[in-house]
Amino acid sequence: MYKNILIPVVLNRENDTPASFEAARQLADTDAVFTVLHVQEPIPAYVSAQIPSDVLANTRHDVLEGLQQCASELPEAKVQLISGHPGRAIVDFANENKVDCIVLASHKPGFEDFLLGSTANRVVHHAKCSVHVIR
Questions:
Q1: Exposed, middle or buried, 118 (CB in 10 Å: 0-12/13-18/19+)?
Q2: Residue 8: other Cβ atoms inside 10 A
Q3: CB-based burial of residue 22 (10 Å sphere; 0-12 exposed, 13-18 middle, 19+ buried)?
Q4: What family does the Swiss-Prot or TrEMBL record give for this protein (predicted)?
């Protein structure tokens, strides 16, 4: 069905990443390309100025290792670690990389989601490709 599938993940146990991977497998053509993406929110400059550069580099390295470990459940997947606001960054990445399907897990919405909006909500409303939300 789809040839270029993006699977955004959060590196914690709240989201259902294995279900996202399974859905992506089911939606994929035989020659599909999978990309497992994690968006790291930028640290404000006034904060990062106080953090030693080696600490920032080590943190990025640790996040990348966690992402690769997470993606090992989908061995044929590429991994990408980018920086930005998650909802916007996912949509931008999908547009720039000609993604034809985004599969993402969503948390159960709370009151704050009605005021601020969630990542899944932003992706659903702004992506130019198909979006499958796993609940």
A1: middle
A2: 27
A3: middle
A4: Belongs to the universal stress protein A family.
Number of domains in the chain: 1
pLDDT of residue 117: 53
Q: Within a 13 Å sphere around the CA of 38, how many CA atoms are in the beta-carbon half?
A: 21
Instruction: Give the strand pairing for 130-134 and 101-105.
Output: parallel
- The closest of 63, 54, 75 to 9, measured between CA atoms, is 63
pTM: 0.89
Q: Mean pLDDT in each 10-residue stretch from start to end of the chain (135 residues)?
A: 95 79 95 96 90 89 93 91 95 98 81 61 95 91
What are 45's two structure tokens? 């400059």
Q: Where are the alpha helices (DSSP H) in 1-135?
A: 17-27, 45-48, 53-71, 86-96, 111-116, 119-126
Q: What is the pLDDT of residue 64?
A: 94
Tokens of 130: 């198909």
Q: Which pLDDT belongs to residue 109?
A: 62
Containing domain of residue 76, as a range? Answer: 2-134
The encoded tokens of residue 93 equal: 């990445």
Q: State the CATH number of the domain containing residue 79.
A: 3.40.50.620
